[in-house]
Amino acid sequence: MHLYGYFPNNNHNCFQASIYYFCRSYQRESMNPQRKLMPLDEFTIQETRKFKAATGELSAILRDIGLACKIINKQVLKAGLVDILGQHGATNVQGEEQQKLDVFADETLINVLRSSADCAGIASEENETFIAFDDEFSMNSKYVVLFDPLDGSSNIDVNASIGTIFSVYKRVSELGKPCTEADFLQPGNKLMAAGYVIYGSSTMLVYATKLGVNGFTLEPSIGEFCLSHPNMKCSEKGKIYSINQGNTCKFDDNMKAFLDHCMEDNKEEGRPYSHRYIGSMVADMHRTLLKGGIFIYPADKKNANGKLRLQYECNPMSFIIEAAGGVSNTGKDRILDIQPTELHQRVPIFIGSKNLVEKANSYTNA
User: 198 near 288, Cβ under 8 Å?
Assistant: First the structure.
């Protein structure tokens, strides 16, 4: 049917009027002088001014990461239209099949941060060891960056939400020389900043410092991340649990007992809780941050030390959640207090709303 056929008597004037009022309405909304957009660059500059001794290097790194993620987002949006989907034909250091977008995201972040004058080196989940930038400016930089370039890459081919996770540490090695492994093997309580970018129905960057957690949505018409979720908080109480329940047969009895608790019918306590699991930590944690709940990836018979990486996933997410008022631990120990012993160390994780994490811990420690 012709588009005009949806209007009574094929009224062309009615159609034109509808388009006119839609455009005027959109114009008023987008050009409203009362609606001030706060770009990521401006926000980080304002935050820097709160500290007299701040040099602006940390803010510059956050802006560089934002730039890299805009480049990655552009390729994600082309998935299915260009040859960017599917396996790359190699495995990463974890022994996992690399997707083409995994490799593109990894190379993009490395190249952008290498070109920065404020990053001394990087460590990536996709690479066996860290990379020290050896030019004069980089060797005098105070910060190193760790990242999972494309979390949830198994979801790429089915168009589900994926993301980038990053964290920033201040160097402990001598300035003027290349950074060392010790710079990357710091506990999460030494983090200067951490964040993630989620590529979903909209593209959003969330980052945390000790000042709090803020979210920025990519405004495609101007190509800028703009403040959309100031001072984000994780609800103290939650009613959503997120876990790969297909692995229940591998869990110990205490973990199974907690899942039974979540599924039990108890109207006074609002149970059963809702179960949601996407298979991308960024997507599951973004929902947990916004709506409350708990995300769990426990140790099991196959992964005695857990499956998620301490430095690339668990520490940055724990830093964000704790800055937003939530809780994160291994079932026993606080994630941010763990001293890493290797770059690709794995740990179990229980993270999210205080009430659900503490309840889960009461079962795992029984």
Answer: no
